[in-house]
Amino acid sequence: MQKFAPSAIIPLTSAERQEDEFDTRPKEECGVFGIFAPGEDVARITFFGLFALQHRGQESAGMAVSSGSFIKVHKKVGLVTQVFDQGIIEHLSGISAIGHTRYSTTGGNLECNAQPMLVHAKDGTPIAVAHNGNLVNTSQLRLELELAGCELLTTNDTEVIAHLIARAYEGHIEEAIQKTMEKLEGAYSLTILTPNKVFAVRDPYGIRPLCIGKLTTGHFVIASESCALATIGAEYVREVEPGEVIVIDRYGMTEFQAVPLRQRSTCLLEFIYFARPDSLIYNRTLHTVRRKMGQELAKEHPAAGAHLVIPIPDTGTPGALGYAEMSGTPYGEGVIKSRYIQRTFIQPSQRMRDMGARMKYTPLKDALAGKRIVMVDDSIVRGTTTGKLVRMLMDAGALEVHVRITAPPVKFPCYYGIDMADQKELVAAKNSVEDIRRMIGATSLGYLSLEVAVRAVGMHKSNFCRACFDGKYPIPIPQDVKITKMMFQENQDEPSKDFFDQNLREPALR
C-alpha cells in the first residue's frame, strides 16, 4: 500500500512567524475531530478529517485512538501529512479517535504543546482532550491545580482542561465534564476521548464552531467544520449547541445541556474569513455568505469607472465575485498565488522581503496594464500585506487600485482563540480609513460596515462575537490575560513553561 507523501514544508518557529511580514492575516488556533465507529478504520478517517481542517492550524497535528481498553496518542510538530504516514495510521487501530490541528495563540509550537492531551484519572482511566479556543481564566485554574499537587508539563490551557476533568472523575465521566465546564471561562470547542466514548463539548457562548455528522454506516463524527464531514463522506447533521455535551458510544448519540446557554456569540470572523468557503455554519454555506458580502460591499463602496474586479486569492474570491455581480464590472484574475508555498520565509532585508512577496504572489501584467482595478480582499490587519499588493499591481501597470475589504476594520485583539496582532499593531486601531488608504498607497479604500456584514450572514447581530471590530467582549477579559498575550506575541524565542507560570500565575496571587 502506498505511503502518504510527507510535505517538505517545515513549520515556522514563533520568531520566523513574526518575520513573515507578507502573511499578516489573523490565524485560527486549531481544528478538532472525533469519531466512534467500531469496525471502521478510525485512524485513517481521522487523518482525512484533519487534512480537511489543515487550514485551521499548521504548526502541529495529533491523534488519540482508543482500542476500547487503552488509548494510543501520536502527535508532532508539522502538517498532517508530515505527522502521519501509512505505518503510523496502521499502528493506530481502534474503535474511536479524536484528532487535532494546531496553531498556537498561547504556548509555543513546541512538541509538548501538540494535542490531543492525554491524562489519567485517579483510578487510571485514560482521558484525551483536543481543544479549539482559548480560556480567559487559565491563571486561576492553573493555580488551583498546582496547589492541589498537579504538575503541569505544558504551556497551553488544554492540559488544564484535561486535568480538571481527570480530577473531577469519580466513575461518571459525564459528571466530570459538567463540573469542569462550570469552572471554565472563555472559548472552547472540545473533543474528548475515553476508552468507550467520544464527547463533543461547546462553551455556553458558542464562540468556536463545532458540528455533528453521520457516516453512511450510521456512525457519528464530530468536526470543527462541515468541510471535514464532506471529505470523509459523512452527512451534516447539526451544530453542537452552546453549553451542550454530545455523547457518542456503541449505542449511538445522546446529548445533554451541561451549562445554561448564555448570550450566543459565534465568532463573526468564522463567517468572513476563517472557515473554509465550502463549510456550513448554522446551515449557511460560507461561500454564499461571502459572495453576499461582496455584493453589499459594491453597494456601500462603488468604484466608478473601474475596468476589472480581481480577488486576492484565495480568500478574496467569493467577495470579488459578489462585487463584480452587483457592480456590473467584469471579474477576472489579476494575481496568481503559488500553490506550493505554505508560508513565506522572509529574511530581515527589504530585498529579501520583496523576493518573498514575489514567491507568494505574481501579478498578471497583461490583465492589469492600463486598467482601473478593484482589488477585493477579506481583511486588513497590519496593512503591510495590502500595501505590498497595491504596489505590485501599480508596478504591473495598473492605472488605479481601489481596495475593497469584505470585513469591517479590525481594531481590537482577540482573546478567544485567534492569533491576531496586539492592538498597537492593528492599523485600524489608531488610523482613519483615509490614513490607511495613504499608507497602503491605494486610489481608494472601502470596508464593509459591521451592520451590513452581520446582515449578509442573515442572523441577528446579538448572535455574534464582534469584539475584534467593536471592542465589546462577550466574556470579560482579565488584565493578566491581556498582559500575557502581549508578552507572548512580543517574545522572539519559544516561551518556556516558566515564562507562562510566572506571567499567568503572579497576577492571580496579587
Task: Provide a quick synopsis of the model.
The protein has 510 residues and is of the alpha+beta class.
What does this structure look like?
The chain is of the alpha+beta class and 510 residues long. It has two domains: 24-262, Glutamine Phosphoribosylpyrophosphate, subunit 1, domain 1 (4-Layer Sandwich), CATH 3.60.20.10; 285-464, Rossmann fold, CATH 3.40.50. Helices cover 34% and strands 24% of the residues. The chain is built from 20 helices and 25 strands. The protein has a seven-stranded antiparallel β-sheet. Helix 10 packs across helix 11. The longest helix is centred in the middle third of the chain and has 15 residues, at 286-300. The radius of gyration is 23 Å and the shape is globular. The N and C termini lie far apart (59 Å). Mean pLDDT is 88; it is low at 1-22, 343-348 and 492-510.
What is the fold's blueprint, element by element?
Blueprint: H1 14-19, E1 27-28, E2 30-36, H2 42-52, E3 60-66, E4 71-77, H3 80-83, H4 86-91, E5 96-102, E6 117-120, E7 126-135, H5 138-147, H6 157-168, H7 173-181, E8 186-194, E9 197-202, E10 211-214, E11 220-223, H8 226-231, E12 235-239, E13 244-249, E14 252-257, E15 266-267, H9 268-274, E16 280-281, E17 284-285, H10 286-300, E18 308-311, H11 317-327, E19 335-337, H12 350-360, E20 361-363, H13 365-368, E21 372-377, H14 384-395, E22 400-405, E23 418-419, H15 427-430, H16 433-440, E24 444-447, H17 450-457, E25 464-465, H18 467-470, H19 479-490, H20 497-509
Helix pairs in contact: 5-6, 5-20, 6-7, 10-11, 10-17, 19-20
